[in-house]
Write a structure and sequence with these properties.
binds pyridoxal-5'-phosphate, 10 strands, 35% helix, 7-stranded mixed sheet, Aspartate Aminotransferase, domain 1, 3-stranded antiparallel sheet, 471 residues, 9% strand, alpha/beta, Aspartate Aminotransferase, domain 2, globular
Length: 471
């Protein structure tokens, strides 16, 4: 057993301590002044450990985590780009950190300037008129944007528009947000090129349609080249276009959703604008609208003004890059994704072969080692084996269009050497799968935990120490 496999309670030795306090000279706050009902009947079962035990334990725990600061993290659909440290430095300036949301407005001109500057920057980048910064995640932005669409139709007395069109390739949060907003979901199919099928869309457009939700490039990393025609058709039918800006990274500085015909959109600041992805938060999903929707922008979907620290980090990032450089990110992300795709497509099945944007999808291995009664290596096996080689796994089994999806997104922050290292490992794994898939079936072999029951771990996490438990 490795030292760090133990819980801190298991390191405990009776009487061991990491500090000493002088004996108390006064008993004025002694326990006898507390009502009996609030007093402990026995001492708390805290671990008794030395300072060194504590330092080693938590340092080792921190190093068991995988992050973009420790290695390559090609998690498709998540844009795990490096978060420059200058963002953190600026966000920790005392003048920003000490702000309170209830301060009088005249005392906060700096914060106001950050919001106004971000509004101007995002409007220039996206072609929208104005943004609200209240939504605290991408999915929260989707819900806010759909509420704006709903309010717009209601304000015009157009009450029949309760259905929203969502492509079959959409991210799961799109139909989920629409359902939470009380809209009925109508699915539009993808064509053989992996794009929204305009012929399938046309018959869906009637006077019950509130709009369409799309992301571009879509979840296969492909640019929806018919977007102008789609916008025309949806607008002619009286609907609005919602842009899921989670995939905005490759387009920044190149194409603007407003110019493509979108009316409402969100951005995931934790993707395109290099703010930390926190396990569920704090995030930020600002929502932008075109001029005719500005009167509906000020919906109250969160307390105060959203996650100011996150917005500030994103603003620092945009200013650091400047107008000239912000557009380089998407070009480099696109180049990196196509480089990996082309370097591996002889060993991994490529269901859609066109040039991708910032990410692409394989559909499992060409030669998975199956046959003659042998079970082949699956996408899960490839992902688990990557952990043994020190890489974070790509997104797997998403999008749902294929059975063995592996979705790879390198981002622009990785060097060619890093991409080459990853390609080499992916080729090694494909070789292992063809020769002896059992190596992959048992992977990972080098990590503290191998293959937990992910559903059980998410639904029924054990978050506190249970004496005698072997977890
Ligand atoms: C295409 C797409 N839309 C929406 C979302 C939801 O964003 P968030 O995780 O910030 O709620 C994601 C997240 O991965 C995404 O990839």
């Amino acid at each position: 057993m490795k030292y760090y496999d133990k819980l801190i309670f298991e390191l405990s030795r009776k009487g061991r301590t990491g500090f000493s306090l002088p004996a108390s000279s006064s008993d004025s706050i002694g326990t006898e002044t507390l009502p009996a009902v609030l007093r402990r009947s026995s001492a708390p079962a805290l671990p008794e450990v030395s300072e060194l035990d504590v330092v080693r334990h938590y340092t080792n725990l921190s190093q068991m985590n995988f992050g973009v600061d420790t290695g390559f993290y090609p998690l498709g659909s998540c844009t795990m780009k490096y978060n420059p440290k200058i963002n953190e430095e600026i966000a920790s300036m005392p003048a920003f950190q000490g702000l309170h949301p209830l301060q009088a407005e005249w005392t906060t001109p700096g914060a106001k300037a950050v919001y106004e500057g971000m509004d101007r920057a995002l409007a220039a980048i996206t072609g929208m008129k104005h943004f609200t910064f209240r939504p605290c995640a991408g999915a929260h932005g989707e819900l806010t944007g759909l509420m704006i669409i709903r309010e717009y139709h209601i304000s015009r007395g157009d009450l029949k528009r309760t259905r929203i069109i969502v492509p079959d390739s959409a991210h799961g949060t799109n139909p989920a947000s629409a359902a939470v907003c009380g809209l009925e979901i109508v699915e539009v199919k993808s064509n053989a090129d992996g794009l929204v099928d305009v012929n399938d869309l046309k018959p869906l457009l009637d006077d019950t349609i509130a709009g369409i939700m799309m992301t571009n490039p879509n979840t296969l990393g492909l640019f929806e080249k018919d977007i102008r025609r789609i916008a025309e058709l949806v607008h002619e039918a009286g609907g609005l276009l919602y842009y899921d800006g989670a995939n905005m990274n490759p387009l920044i500085g190149m194409v603007r959703p407003g110019d493509m015909g979108f009316d409402v959109m969100h951005l995931n600041l934790h993707k395109s604008f290099s703010t930390p992805h926190g396990g569920g938060g704090p995030g930020s999903g600002p929502v932008g609208v075109c001029a005719r929707l500005v009167p509906f922008l000020d919906l109250c979907v969160s307390g105060f003004h959203g996650n100011f620290g996150v917005i500030l980090r994103a603003y620092a990032y945009i200013l650091m890059l400047g107008k000239q450089n912000v557009g380089m990110c998407g070009k480099l992300a696109t180049l990196g994704a196509n480089y990996i795709k082309e370097s591996l497509k002889d060993l991994y099945k490529l269901p859609v072969s066109s040039i991708c944007k910032h990410e692409f999808v394989f559909d499992g291995l060409v030669n998975d080692g199956s046959g003659e009664g042998k079970e082949g290596a699956t996408t899960l096996d490839v992902a688990k084996r990557l952990l043994d080689y020190g890489y974070h796994a790509p997104t797997i089994y998403f999008p749902l269009l294929f059975h063995q999806s592996i979705m790879i997104e390198p981002t622009e922050t990785e060097s060619k050497e890093t991409l080459d290292g990853f390609i080499e490992v992916m080729r090694t794994i494909a070789g292992e799968a063809a020769a002896n898939p059992d190596i992959l079936h048992g992977a990972p072999h080098n990590t503290p935990i191998g293959r937990p029951d992910e559903t059980l771990a998410a639904r029924n996490p054990i978050l506190k120490y249970q004496d005698g438990c072997d977890c």
